[in-house]
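Sample entry (95 residues):
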Amino acid sequence: MAKKGQKFQRYTDEEKAKIISEYLEGKESLKSIAEKYGITSRKTVFTWLNKYRNTGTTNNDKRGRPIKNDEIDYKVRYEILKKYQAFLKEQQEKK
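Predicted structure, serialized as tokens:
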């Protein structure tokens, strides 16, 4: 469990890929690779390995709800809806 104020080491995707490729070549075990690169737990390397095997990548995807870059413009949508309703009303009157 993390302690208050604890700082975590971040690894780039390139570093993770290098570590995983080194393991997949069969040169060293997870434990020795973790010790070599200063990773406190071999389970971290194991997690990266599983993610690589499942998705084919080691990128740092953010968790949670994605941030929407495009804000919904309700005024524009409202105008489109009004035009559509007017069109439907016009079509009904023709019948």
